Every structure is written in structure tokens, then in C-alpha cells.
Amino acid sequence: MRFHFALAALAATAAFATPAFAQSAPVTSSDSIEARALLIQPATIQRVDDLSFGTIIATPSASGNVTIDANTGLRVVGAGLTGSVSDQGQRGRFIGNGVPLSSVNLTAAFPNVLVNTADNSAGVTFSNGSLDLASATGSRIIGPTGVFYVGVGGTITIATNQMPGLYTGTVTLTADFQ
């Protein structure tokens, strides 16, 4: 009987004992995020998002087009190329601020070529540059808040034996507030 009582007492002590690691000092961890705000002034246009065609996988014998829609941001990758699922690209976006219900004329200047950042003699052709209007040049009425967005899209052509690397170019949007 004494043996069973001792085992029961030992089992009860083990069941309610606090693990040793719980009695140590508290663990502290921290991290940070960036807090930011985009401040725009009246009668201005400002970049929000860059136009990105994403990551494209092309074998040396592959060629084709990649298009980003200015209205939806949808990427279409032509036959022969493979678009990375983890980097699908995005339409470019500008934000503008003007007098509510007035008009603004928008004009875009698109590059003819995106240039390889490691070797500026290599390039991919840029074409069909577009805004989320009917064409690259257009007019719109500014909404009642005074704030408006402009989406930017286009097409690049990947040639056979295209040099791998990052290709860049500049799109410039000019807003003429009426």
C-alpha cells in the first residue's frame, strides 16, 4: 500500500509541475514596418507603381511578346515564353490631383526599347504603350474628389537568344490641367 501511495504522489507531482523553461526570463522580440504617406499637391501627377512585366522564363530558342493591360494590370505571356507565377508584374500607376470636375489632358512618352542594365547594348522592343484611356494621349474629367489614377501598360518583345538580365526604360506622363 505504501508503494502505491508513493507512486500516486510522484505522479501527482509530475502532472502539476511547471516546466523548467517556463520559469526563465521572458523572451523579447521586435520588428519594424515602414510608415509612409504620399503627399500630393493640387495640379500635380505622381508615380505610385512602376510598370513591371514580371519575371519571364525564355529558353535560347524562345521568342514572343509579353503584354500588361493598362486598365486591369493583366499580364499575357505569348507562346514560347513562360511567365513566373511568383512575379507576375503589374501595370504602372500614377496619381493626380486637380480641380474637381475640371479636365486634364494626359500625354505619355514611352521608350522604344528597354535596355539591359548589365549590358546597355542589349534591349527588348517596347510597343503599344497605353494609358487606361482609349490611347496614349487623352483627356479626362477629374472626379468630385479631385484625385484620379492613370494606369500604364504596354508590350515587350523577347527575341530568340535574348540576353538574360533586368531590362529597364522610362515612361513619362505629362498632365496639362485645364
From TrEMBL:
- Tell me the InterPro entries matching this sequence: DUF4402
Keyword annotations for this protein, in alphabetical order, are:
Signal
Q: Where is the signal peptide?
A: 1-22
| Database matches in Pfam families | DUF4402 (PF14352)
This protein is called DUF4402 domain-containing protein
